[in-house]
Every structure is written in C-alpha cells, then in structure tokens.
Amino acid sequence: MTEPDSTAAELAELRAHAKEGDQDALDQLVELAGSRNDLDELRALADAGSTDAVDILVELAGERGDRVELQRLAAAGSQDAADILDELDS
Asked: Its domain of life (predicted)?
C-alpha cells in the first residue's frame, strides 16, 4: 500500500486511519504525497498538524523557489521556510 500508484481506495483507507490517529498511516500518506509531489495533500496533512508534511512542503517550495508557498509556510510558523526566504533574499 505504500507504492506511489496506490489506488484511490487505498488512499481513502489510509486517510481514514490517519484521522483516527494512526501515526503509521499518517506517515505513509505523507510519504506518498511527497513522492507524487501532491501539494494539495501535503497542505491538508500539514494543516492537520503533520510536521513531516510541512518539512516536505518547505523542501519542495525551496527547490522551486516558490516564494508564495514559503511565505505561507513561514506565516504558519515554519522557521525553515523563513530561513529559505532569507537565503533567497540575500
């Protein structure tokens, strides 16, 4: 169930388990979303409190030089995003 080509049913099952507090399911969702560059899924997971999802979003935004995403993440409290913005500005 950890393959990037997971079916919609498998993803729905993982989401349900993650909502119930299953950390392994949450970790798998973050990993899958990161491998698919699924920013929407990563944002949803980050908004739900996943620091791993935030870390991946920061990494992806930094690689793309996506200032808007980095600013959003920094405003939400990510020091890593703020640091990357500072690096981009220097």
From this structure: Bacteria
74 neighbors 85 (Cβ within 8 angstroms): yes
**pTM for this entry:** 0.85
- 13-39 as b/e, with b when 16 or more CB fall inside 10 Å? ebbebbeeeeeebbebbbebbbeeebb
* 33-41 LR contacts (CB < 8 Å, sep 24+): 34/60, 35/4, 36/4, 39/69
Assess whether pLDDT exceeds 60 at residue 2: no
Q: How confident is the model at residue 90 (pLDDT cuts 50, 70, 90)?
A: confident
